[in-house]
Each structure stands twice: as C-alpha cells, then as structure tokens.
Records
---
Amino acid sequence: MKEWDELRDADLARAVLGSIHRRAGKIRRPINLMEVCGTHTVAISRNGLRQVMPPNLRLLSGPGCPVCVTDQRDIDAAVCLAEIPGVILATFGDMIRVPGSNRRLPGCGAAGNPGEPGSLGEARAAGRDVRVVYSPLDALAIAEANQDKTVIFYAVGFETTAPMVAATIEEAAARGMENFRVFSVHKLVPPALESILSGGEVAIDGFICPGHVSVVIGLGAYRAVAEKYHVPAVVGGFEAVDILQTVDMLLAQVEAGEARVENQYRRVVTAEGNRSAQELVGKFFHPVDSAWRGLGVIPDSGLALREEFSQFHAERFEPAVETLRQLKNSPPSRMNGCACGDVLKGLVSPTQCRLFGATCTPVSPVGPCMVSTEGACAAYYKYERQMAGGR
Ligand code: SF4
C-alpha cells in the first residue's frame, strides 16, 4: 500500500478524507459507491483507499474492465476464428490468457483438442497464428504484410478503444484492403450502469464514473443515471486525491438527497466529450444489444459495424459464419467455480470467491477478473490480499 506522505497533495488528501468521514457519519447507514473503470479499481487498491474509508462506506468494483466483461461466448468465438485455416487472429495481450469454456462446438477446436476451445494462448501453442498487438493499426500492418492471409482484429474495449478501431477501418477502406476484418465486442458503459440499477441486485448510492471513457462521451451520457434512477454520478480522475474528492462529491449529494452528474476530472473531461471521436465511431459503428459477463444481454450496449462496411465484419467472413451463429445462440456457460460475473456486479468482493488466491492467481488464472491487469481480482491479489488474511 502506498504511504500517504508519498501522495501528491497529501495534506489535501487528508482533509478530503476527513470530510468523507464526517459526511458518512452524518448519513448513518450503509453506503455503496461503485467504480466502473479498471484504472480506478487498480488506483483504489494500490493506494489502499478501501482500507481508509468509513466503516459504513463500501467501494465496490463494477464492470469496468473490458477483458472481464467480455462474454464467455465471445472468448470462445475468438478461439474459433483463430482455428480457421489462413486466419491470423490479432488482439491485445490480456485476451490471450482468458480461459475458454471448453464447450464442444462443431468445426471448432483448439490446442489440438478438436471441439474444445481453450484460450487463445493455447491455440497459439498448438500452432494457430495468434498475435499480440498494441494498437489496431498494428493488426492492419500485419494484414498488409500477409496478403495471402485474412487478419481478424479481435476488438475488445469501451468507448475509449472504439475511435482507434474506427480510424483503422477508415484506413483499411482507404487502402482498399480486402484481407482485414474486425470482430467487434466493444462495450458501452452507460447502458451497463442502467442495467445494474434496473437489476436491483445491489443497492448503489453513487457511481465513480470512468475518466478515460468520459473524455470521449462527455458528462451528458450519464444523465439517465441521475434523472431516471436518482443516483449521483461523478466523473473522477485517477490520482488518490482525485478519487477521494470524487467520493466526497458523491457523499455530498447523498447527504443532501440529490442526484446530479458532476465532474471532478475537469482538467480533462468536458460536458460534450470529444465530438470528433464520437462522429468517427458513429460513421463506422452502430449500437447493438450485447452480452456482458455477469450482466447478460444489455440493450444497445455494444457496437457493430455498419452494413456499408460489412466487408470488414468478421461475422460476415464466410468460413466463420455458421460457428459464430451457433455460439451466439448457445446458452451462456459458467466457468468452473469462477464468481467473476458476480464480482462485476458488486455482489461479492474478489476475496469472497473460494478460488481467490488458492487455485486462482495471476500466474494461473481461472477467470478473466484475475487475468487482466485491470481486473478486480488481480488488483485485490496484488495489493489487498493481506487484508483478507494473506490468502
Ligand atoms: S478469484 Fe478467480 S475464480 Fe474467483 S472470481 Fe476472481 S477470476 Fe474468478
């Protein structure tokens, strides 16, 4: 845990923490605040903020890690795509290690074990061409260098990643490339917040809204959270003092019985967001219903390529069409004993999973929440494990 004296603005942090304790003392009931950004999750754990909160205030980790919220069927689908002869599957590093569900699917198998999709890493070890990239443009460069292959970019991420992918498709179209496709499992944050609130499984008193996503979408995107569900939403930055101020702003609203969208991260986030990025995404993608791990199918919470760009759509790639259709219509599978879906809804903390730190560790992850560096289980394991009895 970081020593408080090392924090930037340590005196300010202490003052804000005092305010948090005074407000929580006056509210006198359990208060649940949820962060919905993996970077916030890591910052809260790394700075030991959970441990200095008042006893009646819980900081819950929500669906803020894109690797973690990707539906298991989409993990299996990517492995199936990598199985197709002549395909190079390119994606971000964390996705390689997410375990597959080992369901039997006709025409799809990995790791030399026909019909049982493992992880992309296992598929690569079995000889499939799976490559880690740092940007979608890297995937485009691979396509250009391998004209006899089809490169499929497995696009995982939130509103922050989508503009980069849209720009890459624009570039691919400009170059007339025919061997580049995108398997889009992008997710949109505001519909997930509404899904958590309408589901009612956990009482949320306020959302710590994601700073990076909000740079793109702006403050207005959270209006429904405040107006329809009467839940305060504050966009926060990522330093310890930013997060403390965000918590204090949320508590001020809870104390006053108000629900507004506010902006703690004013040095970066604006009311309208990044219009150019929004227009770029809107040109290539449109919102679609999307399946989330733990949350199920949420209306208009994903992004699919527009019809006029269907030549870049992995789901229109003839060798993959039938397998992807079957996967999409198959029931969701639950990983053995993994409670990641409940962690993402704030129903349980990572340390309440019976596999945490025992069979599930960052070296040998059972579920995606332990794979991703932004996953709640990985953050708890790295920074907060001792608080749970050293498991
Ligand atoms: S500790 Fe591992 S098995 Fe448990 S919820 Fe987290 S990722 Fe899943």
Note: The CA atoms of residues 235 and 263 lie 5 Å apart.
---
Amino acid sequence: MRTRTLPGTDLELSVVGMGCWAIGKTYWGDDVEDATSVEAIHAALDAGINWFDTAPLYGEGHADRVLRDALKGRSERAVIATKIGVALKGSSGHAESQLDAAHLRSDLEASLRRLDRETLDLVQVHWPCQHGTPLEETFTTLQELKNEGKVRHIGVCNYGPEALDELTNYADVISLQTPYSLLRRELEQEHLPVIERRGLGVLAYEPLCRGLLTGKYLKEPTFPDSDLRSRDDRFAGRFFVHASRVAHDLGKLARRLEVSTASVALGWVCAQPHVTAAIAGAKTPAQVRENAQAHRFIEQPEAVEVIEKILHRHRRSRPQS
Ligand SMILES: NC(=O)c1ccc[n+]([C@@H]2O[C@H](COP(=O)([O-])OP(=O)(O)OC[C@H]3O[C@@H](n4cnc5c(N)ncnc54)[C@H](OP(=O)(O)O)[C@@H]3O)[C@@H](O)[C@H]2O)c1
C-alpha cells in the first residue's frame, strides 16, 4: 500500500482509507452485519489501509463502536478521522449542522468516549453551519480543543472555496474532505486555487459514486427505503446511463489489468496529484480487498490516460448539472 503525508501533519495515510458510513447500519440498506463489518476492518488493516473515516452521525455512534471493537487488540494505533458538528433534530431525527462551541465540545467528548481514545488524529467539521454560527466561533473552538490536546489535527468537509479561505484564518485547518470521483469533478474548478494557496490536503469521499463506478449495475437498480440510494437521482435516468457507459469501459480496462472495475475507478482518484487519499466506503472484506488494489495506479500513468480517454469518449452522454 502506498502512503502519503497529510500536509502539515506527521500522519502517513494509506492512499486508500476506509469509510465507515455504511457500517453504522443506517442509510445503506438492511444487509449490514456487525460481524462482517469487523471482518472488513480487519481486511483493511491486512491490506495496509491504516486509517478510517467515521462520524457520530453514522448510526448515532454505532460505526464508532464497531470501529473501536474491531481495532482493539489489532491496531490500536490506526489513524481515526472523525467528523463532528451534526445534531439530530425533532421527532424525525433530522440531521442538521450545529457548530456552536457547546455542541462541538459535547460531540467531541462523546466521540472520544465511544472510540476509547484520549485524542483523535483528525477531527473534521462535518458540514458548514445551517444556523448562522460564525466561522470564527466554530474554528476558534476547534483550535482550543487542539490546544487542549483532544484533537491532533483539524479538517473540514463540504465547505466552498470562499469559506475555506476565511476559516483557515481562525484555526490550523489542514485538510478538506470533499466529494470527488470520475463522475464528480467540481473540486478541480472550484477548490484547487484555495487548496494550493493554503497548502491543504484533500480527502476524496464517495470515490465510487456510491457503487455506480464498480460496474455492478447492468440496469437501473432498486433499493429499499432504508438505503439512501433509493432517493439518489444518479441511480436513474440520464445520469445512470452515462455512469453505466463509463463503468462498462472501465471494466474492459480492468479485465486487461486483471483488477476489479472498482479499483480502476478508485485508482484514478488516488493517482490525482491534488488528492492525498481516497475514502472508499465498504461493507465486506471482499470489497475492501478490491478497493485496496487502487494504490497500484499511482505507478501507472498510462492507465490513468486511458481512463481520461474513456471519460472523453462519453462526455456527450453526461448530463449537465
Ligand atoms: N464528509 C461527508 O459529508 C461525507 C459524505 C459522504 C461520505 N463520506 C465518507 O466517505 C466514505 C465513502 O463514501 P460513500 O461510502 O458515500 O461512497 P462510496 O465509497 O463511493 O461507495 C461505497 C459503497 O459502494 C459499494 N462498494 C464499495 N466497494 C465496492 C466494491 N469493491 N465492489 C462493489 N461495491 C462496492 C458498497 O455499497 P453496496 O455494497 O451496498 O453497493 C459501499 O457501501 C463514507 O463511508 C464516509 O466515511 C463523507
């Protein structure tokens, strides 16, 4: 497994990290079993994946607990990245960003307890604030938590370039976690200037476009209501057609290289020079093992070129967003 230094830190991250959203057992269907999730985390460690992205939101702490138990006695030093600042509101438990000092502190304390750590390697703000808390309040609080030793490094997710530029004035923010894949490349147009100016690391989430880029969908799939993909427009209509064409051609390349389609799609993300690491969600050991192969693409610029040609070939079927 290849590693890269997360800029501004001493963290050497495997270029493929494991995302723990699905193992929280909410939003991703009814087929997630804790025992299999633990096996998947062990398979990740065996494959050289040394960091895990979790959040209190993932099953209201369930993903944290599964991760803690899986790492116990296996790799207590694995890097844990979490994402705080979301609260569940009302009787429906609707998730909203809440970034005032009191909530950030209590969310972090609860995370430390659940994950059984005294400090967390990377603590990211999960979403920008929906309630008008000033950036200054949020990020000076995170800086205080870092100064207190509860947070080793501060990151953010999902912020636009302007806010990113401002918030880096209030805290030692070192990374942006953002969606990035062969089907979603806004990062390149929108964020790269500020990322370069501020020297930030990039952690790419949803690199498989929730499974669309694995090539496993030969026709429009149906999902149970418990799976957020039942409400994801990308799994139907023109976007699905485009994604299927891209995945089909990635599959041909994958067969030539004797790897899986998923690892080709993920490999393209890992090979991008502005990406520090990709966060691949997975439910099973087999998925993790396939995804871990993606690191091989960093040494294969010719394969990355072929992938760009595939995208170019299908550019006309891509719906305009
Ligand atoms: N900061 C944020 O706001 C934010 C938002 C989203 C995600 N994230 C993080 O990023 C991580 C990754 O994103 P994501 O999980 O949304 O999407 P993703 O990584 O693009 O897709 C993950 C899903 O694809 C399927 N899959 C994975 N590997 C596969 C393989 N080799 N073959 C076939 N299917 C495979 C699995 O679901 P099935 O088996 O059910 O198909 C898996 O749950 C999350 O777990 C989370 O840690 C962060």
Note: The mean pLDDT is 95.
